[in-house]
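Sorry to interrupt, but I need a hand with the structure work. I would like you to pick a protein and set down its sequence and fold. Please put the record directly below this note.
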Amino acid sequence: MLFAFLCQDKPGALQTRLDTRPAHIEFLDGLNSAGKLAFAGPFLDADGKPNGSMVVVKAETIEEARALAAADPYAKAGLFASVDIRPWNWTYNKPEA
């Protein structure tokens, strides 16, 4: 099952994001290698600067998805003001379809 992580950065946390980005990318690379990452990328503010993230993972349960979200270096660094984890159904333009 797919789960979408909708993450909103804390105000004024751009430097935390930039400092933690290498570890975050390494984490996503690991998820991708394990076949758990569907896709991911940052949300952008009006100036084109990242201010949140959308990460879609493959997990068996919501508990597994929550554990993956909590293991993200961005989450561990306290970057996010909120993280909403939702089951998601990829309907259009799904690569496997």
